[in-house]
């Protein structure tokens, strides 16, 4: 925690009551002028803090922003969220920024967050739209000790961690759609875009990008998109604290990430299968225009879909879009 985070914590602890500049300067071991300078910066970033001469400072309201101080407040992780949190009100793509930071050598656990993206990307170069303050656009930097082929498991693991987060907090019956969409009643709530950089057949870094529709009202989506996409607000009728969602996701993510590195992937895969409800279903998979129909026999540990077509031939499908009416 840096000085400003500690100051914020001290002010929040006394929410609604004045704390004198002198008491804060004593608690933080900095001058009163430095306290005043940090308070001014906090106000600029959106925190409602009043200052009255002779009385000091009073913390009034948390801003509904994904600010580093908001994410760190009450964060229950060991690594994720404790390193740099690179926060932007507007950015092209958090994945692009995360790749830049990762190439510059930042440590595992670095997090990039944005209120809005101008060039958010999804799988297969599709756009990912976000409007300021409505959703979560997040990218995490990982440096896993695994082979590039094993790294595809991180996408499956992320889908599990996000589903657990949403099931736990919202109780919505979310499902994973292969390979990595999170659906509610057949509509997309979230998507995951994992990108990897390799050096000499070794993983250098992995960037896990996550887009979640949180407080988007129905008119955020065009009529066509409204048929296939939704948000937590639309599904529950209530707004959700985005920083709390990020904290909970980081907790689940860290748990599963240490599980796969310590004990292997089988427990995560088992949970993925429960949450995807895809095994045994008849599906059509669209692979850039060509389609295969069949029954899903299994999804292997690399996330490959094993499909048996009506003539009994098995197909290994590495990438594509599953067309399935009832999930
Ligand atoms: C998909 O559904 O195809 C994946 C969507 C992933 C969107 C997220 S938003 C944060 C991160 N930055 C990006 O540009 N994309 C991912």
Percentage of residues in DSSP E strands: 25-35%
By CATH reckoning, the class of the largest domain would read: Alpha Beta
Parts with pLDDT < 50 across at least 5 consecutive residues: none
Within CATH, the superfamily of the largest domain carries the name: Bira Bifunctional Protein, Domain 2
Structure described in brief:
The protein is α+β, with helices and mostly antiparallel strands. 33% of the residues lie in helices and 28% in strands.
What does this structure look like?
- With 327 residues, this protein is α+β, with helices and mostly antiparallel strands.
- The protein folds into 3 domains: 3-61, Orthogonal Bundle (Arc Repressor Mutant, subunit A); 68-275, BirA Bifunctional Protein, domain 2 (2-Layer Sandwich), CATH 3.30.930.10; 278-324, Roll (SH3 type barrels).
- Helix content is 33%, strand content 28%.
- The chain contains 10 helices and 14 strands.
- It has helices at residues 3-13, 21-28, 32-45, 68-72, 94-103, 153-170, 223-226, 232-236, 242-263, 266-276; strands at 48-52, 56-61, 85-91, 111-117, 135-142, 175-177, 181-184, 187-199, 202-213, 282-287, 290-299, 305-308, 314-317, 321-323.
- It has a 7-stranded mixed beta sheet, sandwiched between helices. A 5-stranded antiparallel beta sheet has the order 13-12-11-10-14, with no helix packed on it.
- Strand 12 (305-308) and strand 13 (314-317) form a beta hairpin.
- Helix 1 (3-13) crosses helix 3, helix 2 (21-28) packs across helix 3 (32-45) and helix 6 (153-170) packs across helix 10.
- The longest helix has 22 residues, at 242-263.
- It is elongated, with a radius of gyration of 22 Å.
- The mean pLDDT is 92.
